[in-house]
Amino acid sequence: MTAPFTIDAFHRGNFWLVQPDGKGHRAGMDAMMLAAAVPSGFSGRLADFGAGAGAAGLAVASRCPKSRVVLVELSREMSSFAERTLAYSGNSHLAGRVSILVADVGLAGKERVAAGLADSSFDYAIMNPPFNARHDRATPDLLKQQAHIMEDGLFELWIRSAAAVVRPRGGLALIARPQSLQPLLAALGGRFGNAEIVPVHARADAPAIRIIVRAVRASRAGLTLRPPLILHDASSDLFSVRADAINNGRASLFGD
Amino acid sequence: MTAPFTIDAFHRGNFWLVQPDGKGHRAGMDAMMLAAAVPSGFSGRLADFGAGAGAAGLAVASRCPKSRVVLVELSREMSSFAERTLAYSGNSHLAGRVSILVADVGLAGKERVAAGLADSSFDYAIMNPPFNARHDRATPDLLKQQAHIMEDGLFELWIRSAAAVVRPRGGLALIARPQSLQPLLAALGGRFGNAEIVPVHARADAPAIRIIVRAVRASRAGLTLRPPLILHDASSDLFSVRADAINNGRASLFGD
Predict the structure, then answer these.
(1) pTM of the predicted structure, to 2 decimals
(2) Which residue among A186, A201, A208 sits closest to B182, beta carbon to beta carbon?
(3) Which residue(s) pair with B16 in the sheet?
(4) Of B52, B139, B201, B234, which shows the fewest CB atoms inside 10 Å?
(5) H helix or E strand, kind and range, residue A154
(6) CATH architecture of B5-247
(7) Could you tell me the fold of the domain covering A5-182?
(8) Of A182, A201, A225, which has the smallest distance from its Cβ to B178's Cβ?
(9) Are A123 and A166 within 8 A, CB to CB?
């Protein structure tokens, strides 16, 4: 591979990510917040849908020492970065619990099973679905565009697949934009219950920039709207104490 | 009327409510928060769907001196309390801008028009739809039960009616439980856009107990999740400064 890349530390150096340099969707706070939705004591098999170079999945493997993680990624280019991430020496303590599956999360039925995503074969799924940035002029290049173009219908496809591969009482966590709340909740309906939403605000007085949603397969319990996560204290560009702990794998988002 | 009643001050005595004593749904903070979603400068015609004794509608009339308010209530018993509320001497400065319509908000088409709810005849609608408390053993009596039984389908009926009676670019505000987020957003879809949600938390570290939602008829703008309203500061049973201002008609919820 000749594409330029970077090797970036996460969780204060507990794992590293090999990812495209300035191209594609570069992993950051979104992936760390998503991973933080998984309980610290989680010890099962987890699928990271649309894993990219592996940031969220590795963050789960890093914080949950008994977890096993499958990085599911369609793009050959991004999955090749995931391979290099797992081969990197700084990740050798995690690599034994992490594998890569090149597959389209949007498949259904026998095609999905044939692609390696068997029914009820996971205890948890996490996803950071690509979101629609077609009008976002700040993201011009093609790889980034592929990662960010998200029709509302993709929630339906991805959550349908999550409902198939996650066992009853297993979990789902996802991160999305607040604008996607309606299609997202519609896609959860009848599949996942006991939904818990954490709004994420850059600052306490500004609208939410993300929502993190957790839910339980085949639960019929109602929705809970939890207190928000505030990334920055007033008049500071530094992360708040809580956001820093979440970003660095020192705390889970839901306190469990 | 021989039923026991109370006469309660709202907005620090700027208006009063004649309502059943210990029976039915007694108005309080929910109605004040709902009314606070209407911009202070609102000067049009507003429908209060399911108005009860008139708390939310009168709170709008109290804070918005150029508004005209129609209290829409199906229950003859509750609308009789609304009549006594308007006849009460302490409300004489508002009564000229407030009227009562005994009608079923859930009607559609010609029946709705015949009931007095003409198409595009309002600039704003507000609603505090009765919510499902069938399993809530703390609300045993019949009037309260009627006010609180809310199937998800009622959001569809009430919001459908709001979409009919509110003119294009007019507004809708409602208060609901977080559990109702999905049916509520589904009912808004294609009818109201530019939805803004304010979660209401009793305390900063506890899940939301209510959501207040505002939206614009025929807008296609996306959803915004605003910072929460916290009712009580830590270790205090008193209202927070902001909650007290909203409860007493001194501030709007969205700052407009």
Answers:
(1) 0.90
(2) A186
(3) B9
(4) B234
(5) helix A152-165
(6) 3-Layer(aba) Sandwich (3.40)
(7) Rossmann fold (3.40.50)
(8) A225
(9) yes
